[in-house]
Design brief:
This protein is of the alpha/beta class and 342 residues long. The protein contains ten helices and 14 strands.
Length: 342
Amino acid sequence: MSAAPTSEEEDRHAWERPGAFEVAPGVHRIPLPLPNDGLKAVNVYAISDGDHVVCIDGGWAIEEAGTLFGAALKTIGYELGDVRDFLVTHLHRDHYTNAVAVRREHGSRVSVGEGERACLDLIRAGDRTPDIDRLVEAGAPELAAALSGVEIPRDDNWEDPDRWLPDAVDLPLETRTLRAINTPGHTIGHLVFHDPAHNVLFAGDHVLPHITPSIGVELNRRPSPLRDYLASLELVRAMPDARLLPAHGPATDSVHARVDELLQHHADRLADTLSAVEAGAHTAWEVGCALPWTRRRHRLPDMDVFNQVLAVNETMAHLRVLAERGRLRETRAGSVAQFTTS
């Protein structure tokens, strides 16, 4: 039997409770449930825009999420049919699919970053080969075999968006203007939406208050997603500070404060990764096994398949940055990437 949650753990999960919570003038945070054992909720932000609503992200298309979304909107005076636009930060299921489901029923418009276009094509093709090949490259053939045996759930909500948004485009609403800013790393086409007049940043999964976003877990991952992510963090850090409205977790007062923590986390992780290679680990799987995971310091082999895949991909991302910086040398042993000190 697991221990009862502590007050600290309960506080960390308070943001998941259903409802509509005002987090900025005219902006309500609506947590919607997720059907998995890790993250329990995703925030959809409802921006009151005259007679309509503009939403940042849409949630995962499950029945409970649809019901709670409609109920939350009613508490702030709107119906599902009043949602004019979904501005989706990136093309992960928990952000995109419910937006498509609502559009099908009520005619909303769905927009997503143009950098996600190729990924959508691969998702619809249902080909896991890129994911499996990367695990083999990481020296994790057993994990690759386990992933290949996991059935891909059917989902009819991977339709095209109405708009592919370019980087740095201004989106005029009735009550404000949002700027879409490409922040690759978590995904290639990830967008944040900046509202400078109201001093808020809708950060998606780019900047999260309690956890570090997974890096480059997508079918068309670029060669160095961590390099992209660190550059995107620096880009956001160079902007004026703003209130952080994340996709997972509570709203907080400072984007800059959390960006600084994330940059320090990855600096520490790069140092630990280098130490693991110096101690004799040479593949991403071996290095991942030498490192602790999550704040509970789990061992990689003790985690489930999904979290092992996230961990191995993130380890490879750190190894690649160390190689780019000249701290490690990457060679090949067949199809497996090997890393040694330079």
